[in-house]
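STRUCTURE:
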């Protein structure tokens, strides 16, 4: 069987997701300890309603753009290889929500909090786009991930914290999956 068409089982999906996110947490922890960046942490997570609205609004807008692309573009241009379906099968709905929020928090802390502060806007957001290498052979999805990366970085710059990009990232990742999960639950 061609590896690119291989579907991972639920335990494999869970293990791969937790391993990748665990690696990002470890990298973040090392960078914070080495750079003594703990003083910035409290500044990154300040809650203001405007930042929450910016994040939620940006995430919703991005999901609407994705939905429009799915309606108007050929499926082979936007097919993600079934990763959403695999996540839906691997996690129950409450778990999925917690996992998606965790992914958004972990990735935004590393890329927008630590790296964007350390190496700058362009480098941090380019690295973020590149770690999503599964999209390299799907140009439309690659454009979406590059756009999302720089939009999330822009939210960090505008808000001065991580709440807006975390919420946007959560909405971008979770809404399509949650909608698909709810549709699957209705049809069964």
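SEQUENCE:
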């Amino acid at each position: 069987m061609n590896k690119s068409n291989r579907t991972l089982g639920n335990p494999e999906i869970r293990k791969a997701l937790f391993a990748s996110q665990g690696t990002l947490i470890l990298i973040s922890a090392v960078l914070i300890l080495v750079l003594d960046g703990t003083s910035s942490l409290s500044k990154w997570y300040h809650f203001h309603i405007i930042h929450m609205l910016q994040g939620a609004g940006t995430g919703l807008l991005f999901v609407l753009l994705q939905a429009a692309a799915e309606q108007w573009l050929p499926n082979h241009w936007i097919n993600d290889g079934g990763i959403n379906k695999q996540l839906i099968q691997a996690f129950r709905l409450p778990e999925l929500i917690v996992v998606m929020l965790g992914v958004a928090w972990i990735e935004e802390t590393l890329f927008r909090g630590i790296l964007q502060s350390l190496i700058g806007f362009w480098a941090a957001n380019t690295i973020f786009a590149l770690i999503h290498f599964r999209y390299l052979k799907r140009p439309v999805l690659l454009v979406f991930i590059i756009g999302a990366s720089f939009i999330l970085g822009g939210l960090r710059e505008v808000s001065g914290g991580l709440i807006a990009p975390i919420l946007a990232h959560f909405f971008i990742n979770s809404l399509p999956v949650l909608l698909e999960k709810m549709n699957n639950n209705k049809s069964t």
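REMARK: The chain is about 80% helix and 0% strand.
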